[in-house]
Amino acid sequence: MQILQIFPGKVWGGAEQYVLDLGRALAADGHSVSYLCRDAKAVTSRLDGVVDYSIYSDKTLRDALRDADVVHIHDARFLAPVMRAKRRTGSDARVVLTRHIARPSRTWILQRRHYRRLHRMIFVSQLAYRLWSGANTWMPREKMTVIHNSIADHPQSAATLDLRAEAGIAPDVPIIMFTGRIRRSKGVGVLVEALGQLRNLPWHLVLVGTCKPPEYREKLLRQAERHGIADRITFTGFTADVYGLIAQSDIGVAPSIVREACPLSPMEFMKMGKCVITTDNGAQPEYVQGLMVPPADEQPLADALYRAITDTEFRREAGEDAAEYFATHMAYPTFVGKILKAYS
User: Residue 147 contacts by C-beta under 8 Å, 6 or more apart in sequence?
Assistant: First the structure.
């Protein structure tokens, strides 16, 4: 198949990585994959030298549509332009939309005709499906399907940072890790508060990702200083080899305080056999094997962390169970097979 993937945003996030990984897997499976993206440096800098792509415009969209069998879009804002270009070019490409968010957004009545012309609408979780379909009862149910996200294999860099050596972490001190954008909505402040209650236990927190906004780092450090734990927190910043760092962790924490459609961070830890602690306010209960706590409440999070830190046997078994569940139910080839079925 000739498959056109359209990157959704102007920044690099989970949905953009989803598109890139999926496109690579489809190409490896023998399909011809092309890409369109917005003229945004945060996205193009990640694609340069990795895949061939074109900058999105009316012309590049029409050109790509002429050869495409499938157009996969990942943001509803592209739906109307794609449907208009499809009509103007006479393309018979099947249009598939993945909805990566969990919101009960009502669709403007004049846009509904575009949704009805979709070949398939994919939701990344049952939660995302229930919220959107409940607010849009006009959409034909046979066109909608749920396909949970997955994590593709990524080679580990030989230059991976040695966290214990770099931060002076003793071999018997558990490494607690957060990955993703370091911002208030991801519950990082709640995590620091919870760890402040556990300052008498051995642990070291590693925050992998970029602070949004940049000054949020100083706010977190001031918060940690009040608890006397600032010297037990390491910021790595952005890294292209997050999996090499996850491999060195003992406990993965994803304490988001907002509703998540199908967050990738818990999956990353599960795939690599790490004990996972996450909140239960999104689609996490649909797939996470680990400890789940209410959002924005440091006490249950502190209790879960206490168990994971102090009970090494539990930590090991939780990681093994998570890895087994991922391999059995969420492996990337299984995910790609479901996507191809939706394209068919």
Answer: 98, 122, 123, 124, 335, 338, 339, 342
Mean per-residue pLDDT for 282-291? 97
What is each CA distance from 17 to 212, 221, 255, 308, in whole angstroms? 19, 29, 21, 30
The band of 134, judged by pLDDT with boundaries at 50, 70 and 90, is very high
DSSP 258: S
Residue 190 sits at the vertex; the CA angle it makes with 281 and 273, to the nearest 5 degrees, is: 65
* Mean pLDDT confidence for 214-231: 97
**Angle at 305 (CA atoms; ends 218, 283), nearest 5 degrees:** 85
Closest CA to 264 of 159, 132, 125, 129: 125
Instruction: Check: CB of residue 261 under 8 Å from CB of residue 124.
Output: yes
Judged against a pLDDT cut of 80, whether residue 158 lies above it is answered with no
C-alpha closest to that of 29 among 340, 331, 342, 343: 340
**What is the pLDDT, as a whole number, of residue 240?**
80
Whether the Cβ atoms of residue 322 and residue 291 lie closer than 8 Å to each other: no
CB neighbour burial string for 218-251, b if at least 16 within 10 angstroms, e if fewer? eebeebbeeeebeebbbebeebebbbbbbebbbb
Using CA atoms, how far residue 52 sits from 37, 65, 75, 240, 284, in Å, is 11, 16, 21, 19, 34
Three-class secondary structure of residue 290 per DSSP: coil
What does the alpha-carbon distance between residue 11 and residue 16 come to, in Å, rounded to a whole number? 8
Enter the tokens of residue 12. Answer: 């690099």
- What is the predicted pLDDT for the residue at 183? 96
Share of the chain above pLDDT 90, in %: 95
